[in-house]
Design goal:
Elements lengths: L2 H27 L17 E8 L1 H15 L6 E6 L3 E9 L2 E13 L5 E10 L2 E2 L2 H11 L6 E4 L4 E4 L11 E8 L4 E9 L2
Antiparallel strand pairs: 1-10, 2-3, 3-4, 4-5, 5-6, 5-8, 7-8, 9-10
């Protein structure tokens, strides 16, 4: 093989290798994710139901305090802001540099009292990224509580409040979650013996 053909062969081999890598990446990117669905409501007679009403400002403080305690070892640095939508504000590290990120969700109460967050937008810096890719990345590489499940295919996050572990085995469910009217009502199920 002469020098000209050798370089041509090496170039074509490298090109083919790059194409294979791109095809594998695209295959993994668009591969289906496991299906996540709402869970059925469990009714218990060993609990007393208490209704709690709050506002966006107080709930924001409670959520961020909870996140601060629960996510201290998580590489994602973020906080929640409740406006007309649920906003997740934070930073991610890309190539050793902190970059601002904003995720916006439309909340919906599921029949069983859990919460469905429908992804509306995701930006990193000034760039909008494909939501399904980002949600799959977060689901695969970050340690989320077991009561939070991401369905990247539907671009939804299910918050199974009914499965959240709380002190004294108390359970929480959402009755009303209307951010535009600042109407937030929850039902606490307090165990009795």
């Amino acid at each position: 093989m002469n020098v000209k053909n050798k370089w041509k062969f090496l170039f074509l081999t490298l090109l083919a290798l790059n194409l294979v890598c791109v095809l594998i990446f695209l295959g993994l990117l668009f591969a289906p994710n496991k299906e996540v669905s709402p869970k059925e409501k469990v009714i218990s007679t060993n609990h007393v139901n208490l209704s709690v009403e709050t506002n966006k400002e107080d709930l924001t403080r409670v959520i961020n305090n909870f996140l601060k305690k629960e996510a201290k070892d998580n590489p994602l640095n973020y906080k929640v802001l409740l406006t007309e939508r649920v906003m997740l504000l934070g930073t991610i590290t890309v190539f050793g540099k902190e970059i601002d990120m904003v995720m916006t969700f439309k909340p919906e109460v599921i029949e069983n009292g859990d919460l469905l967050l429908q992804q509306e937008a995701f930006t990193v810096g000034q760039v909008s990224l494909p939501v399904s890719f980002v949600l799959r990345y977060i689901n695969d590489y970050y340690n989320l509580p077991e009561w939070v499940q991401i369905d990247s295919k539907k671009q939804d996050i299910y918050v199974y409040l009914s499965e959240m572990k709380m002190k004294s085995d108390m359970k929480v469910s959402v009755e009303t979650f209307n951010l535009s009217k600042d109407e937030l009502r929850f039902k606490l199920q307090v165990p009795i013996d």
